[in-house]
Amino acid sequence: MMARSKKMLGVVLLIAMVFGLAACGGKDDKAEGGAPAESAKPQKLTLGYLSVMDDAQTILAYQAGIYKQHGLDVDMKVFASGTDLIKAMVGGQVDGGVLGFTNALSWLDKGSDLKIVGGAQIGYHSLLVGADSGILTVDQLKGKSVASQKQGSTADVVWNGVVLKDAGLAKQDVTMQYVSPAVAIQSLAAGKVDGAFVFEPYSSIAKLSYPVKEVYEIGKEWPFPCMVVITTGDMLKNNRDAVNRMLDAQKEAIDMLQNDPDKAAGYITKEFIKEDTIKKTDGTEVKAQDVISSAIKSQTFEWALNEQDVSRMQDVVQMMVDQGILKNKLDVQQALDLTWQNQQK
Hints:
By secondary structure, this protein is of the alpha/beta class.
């Protein structure tokens, strides 16, 4: 497996959670006589994203001007959920996006022409409980309540198919509340639930702002490619060069996230935290940029999909079938187009 580098605030903290040239397919920058060639003009591309740390690479590629450097004129459109994003993609309103691959599977099951063309982020979901709760392991949640994302989401699929299963618990052993990550953290802090299963930067902010602790993180226990790059079959057929440029830019962004998280945080912090500082539980303050840098470091961003990733994706397909989310057991290989990735080797 290739090497991988390695929450809300109480009361009034406002967090805005929002998501060379191409390696192949490009023409010469100049036509005969030295005039700019048509391909030298920036190619327009509309990308969808979610306002979550999972989409840091596409947010960074935009904010740091990396898309422009790769000959793209990108219009970024934010969506409230992966379901909304994938609907827009199927409907032709966006050309591509970074989102949970379970969304693509659900629409592929309906016959939509979608393709997974690259990796993005290895699944990170942290199980937080009260610091004084006495809960140390997942199995101790039996008979208790946990707040997490909506039913059928990637988080819900792996919560039932991996987290509870590995702890020897059944779905009915834990009472679930399906809410946004912000509400999940607020509910945990208020004592309305016993646990919260959330992603970054909610986890990092929660641990700074409330007396909570992490007892499980799926990326450490069962790493899988949660977020992937998805586009449509039409885009690959009609403008693969633009897709390649997008992937080149996101690869560069991921390199920065992996190797210089402090620099990357400088570009994307305001996407997640509007204030300059965050007040900790002890009354002291920490720079918002430092919080985001720490959140980046807690994640594993990866632009390639390897054999183990594909195997884990197939495992998730089976979980979705078992949980009644998919009607058919899809072959992940048929959803993949790793042409660009294979050209990087």
